[in-house]
Protein 1
Amino acid sequence: MLIAITRQVSSSINRCELTYHAKEPIDLAKAIAQHEAYEACLRGLGPRVVSLAAEPDLPDAVFVEDAAIVVDEVAVIPVMGAASRRPETESLARALSVYRQLKFMRAPATLDGGDVMRIGRRIFVGSSSRTNAEGIAQLREALAPFDYEVSAVDVRQCLHLKSGCSYVGANSILVNREFVDATGLAGFELIDVPASEPGAANVLLIEDVIDNAKEGVIPDSAEDAVKDVLIVPSAFPQTIVLLEARGFNVKAIDVSEFQKAEGGVTCKSVIFNGGTL
Ligand code: CIR
């Protein structure tokens, strides 16, 4: 079964890191409600949600995706790009140690999980303000025994690789080519985000919803009883229309308070195969 590790929203989220976004007040109560709805959405699609306690002194700790890279064989714990976020890895590593052998990256490497897009045995890593060349090299080294091909992709004007592109299934990547150097993504069908929604390339693919459901979880509704689902922020209606017109099954979700913190839908969970655990 799929496991989705999440973490409760920190009461200090208004002190989050911001790189490309201007500061806007985040409504904490609304953020908590949106995060509960996000967790419920994941549960409805099959994954077992393991929700970690909030870290009140770590404003960005809800964005667990950045603090670990989990593949079937191992979990890699990075040195995160923002110094304020580095303590987030401790409790996440403890939670992951139940499911995976851990490997730890070392300075001067920096890397955020939001820069890592895995498509089968291929792993694309954003070269960004958070992830440096040494971080990419150490990830490659950590995964070398397991036959993954790790390639760097240049990222500009946005925080992470997955702020600018996401794998949506069917050999296709939703992308904003202003943010991501798409030459590194050759071999995939590229679906451009609408020009009116430049921030819409971060969507979350939940694969094999039917199989997840067979393992004991009944999908929420008939609409969810499909093979794969894309979770897409409701702030991007044109993107939703575009994806649906191409035959993708979309579930829209409101993450407005997390978008103010420069987050999206992938960053609030770490999803991996938990076997029978
Ligand atoms: C940060 O700047 O690190 C947070 N405020 C947002 C992190 C979002 N993470 C992600 O998209 N993977």
Note: The pocket of citrulline is lined by residues 16-17, 19, 60, 63, 65-66, 82, 85, 114, 159-160, 162-163, 261-264, 267 (CB under 6 Å).
Protein 2
Amino acid sequence: MARIVIKNLCKDYDSGKGKTIHAVKDASLTVENGEVIVIIGPSGSGKSTLLRSINKLEIPTSGHILIDDDDVTSPGTDIRKIREEVGMVFQSFNLFPHLSVSDNITLAPIKVKKMEENEAKELALKLLKQVGLEEKANAFPNELSGGQQQRVAIARALAMKPKVMLFDEPTSALDPEMIKEVLDVMLDLAKSGMTMLLVTHEMGFARAAADKVIFMDNGEIIETGKPEDLFTHPSNERTQSFLDHIL
Ligand code: ADP
């Protein structure tokens, strides 16, 4: 079953100097339920814009995005509902510094989903266990390492019980020794059947977890394939040239 269908998506930005930047050009993509898709490509190729359009952090210039057959690009859509269904984890963790780890996780379920406080706390503990941080429930974000904060950010997104998780360079701000602990949590999530779209430079993760890898360049989806195919014998020379630079 298709969870997300992106049809002919275009996103233009005004550069502010009278020039239009075509950040995403006519991108089409289907994400099946439970599929893990990794988007790669050079900086500025439109990866983040494509991802952010899915939960309406960016409003597309044209084209359509359907989540479970609901067209989220139509003007009347409930953005709050989309953000409940589509969780997102960013490069910067954005935890609330004045709230404990547990309160960071329970805030949205209590406020938005009207969950009982006790139930939300139980859920937070369960999710903290899942990300290996059960003992940090009462700690504050500044008492945690970057890798731990990012794992809390993942638990916080999962607390809304999303259908889809988006990750925008989730390990790019981390010291190298903390990357693995975050990737391991993401790998477990992928194995659990979560539908995931990720922008990441972690090719090892892509090989281990992705059902499909998408290469973007200059706003376009150039090539889509299974990791073992795309990494070893890409069909497009731009993909080959990019891989030659990074692998
Ligand atoms: P990537 O994630 O591949 O690095 P982005 O989606 O962030 O690429 O950006 C694609 C293009 O759109 C780039 O040229 C970038 O400078 C431009 N862009 C992104 N966001 C904005 C914005 N808010 N305003 C103007 N230009 C933007």
Note: The pocket of adenosine-5'-diphosphate is lined by residues 13, 21, 23, 41, 43-49 (CB under 6 Å).
Protein 3
Amino acid sequence: MKEFQKTYNLYNGVKIPKVGFGTWQIKSGDEAYNSVLTALKNGYKHIDTALAYGNEKSVGRAIRDSKIKREEIFVTTKLPAEIKTYQEAEIAFIESINNLGLDYIDLYLIHAPWPWSEIGKDCSNGNVQVYKVLEKYYKLGKIKAIGVSNFSPNDIENIIKNNKIKPMVNQIDYFIGFSHEDTIKYCKENDIFIEAYSPLGTGYLLSNADIKKIADKYNVSSAQLALRYLLQKGVAPLPKSTHEERIIQNTQLDFEIKEADMHYLESIKNDPRKWG
Ligand code: NAP
């Protein structure tokens, strides 16, 4: 089996395929439908979307049309960051599951601890309230695993203290040159699995000469090196592409980055999004 199709285990026993297909900024309609279908055709078994991406209907149609058995595909969607009341969260969850046209969701996440227009705002109580909706549908079997995204250790502590079920996943931005070390350490210690979003720095890290130099050593692209780096860190990268050749390339990760090169890549500390 190719590395990208292997799975990690969440603490509740659910298996999550190592590489997920990201769908942020893929337009609803043909673009999202074709990209997801292309990914599934090329062996991806893990799709990441969100109500906020506006493409769940197209993603769901592609999943159904792929004819792959439902239980073989791992589907993640997310509760919009702006929603912080129980009632609105329940409506949003039902909207997502209907949009996708699926009987259950594999992983449902709170998209962020604060609305995107108010990053850093204290929504502790709202997060506890909306998380109760995740717990309700998890217990009903409509969600196989629940979690959070963009949560700091304090945000997660608040959930653990005031809710019943510990999150299984935290999805955070993580790529060569950028990571939240305190959050990663906290999640590892608490058996909360890390998914790495923007594993290619939304494309920006691909023009970095230092990364390219290491990629050349292994005869792979910078994108492949960046994804393999995250696999060796034990997390699940979620690369996005609308081009078939790149969708395929991002699955070819069966090589090993040597320890010395891993250390070198870890030492690249700039946020590639600020490189220019
Ligand atoms: P990304 O996967 O880091 O990078 C995507 C960019 O890289 C696109 O411009 C893509 O171009 C290009 N690309 C992909 N593969 C390539 C390759 N092999 N060679 C050259 N260029 C390549 O971007 P992202 O969308 O920021 O992050 C990935 C996923 O993470 C999202 O789609 C979403 O599912 C998730 N995410 C979650 C959050 C959150 O708050 N939870 C936030 C951001 C992202 P083309 O598409 O033109 O090929």
Note: The domain at 3-274 is CATH 3.20.20.100 (TIM Barrel).
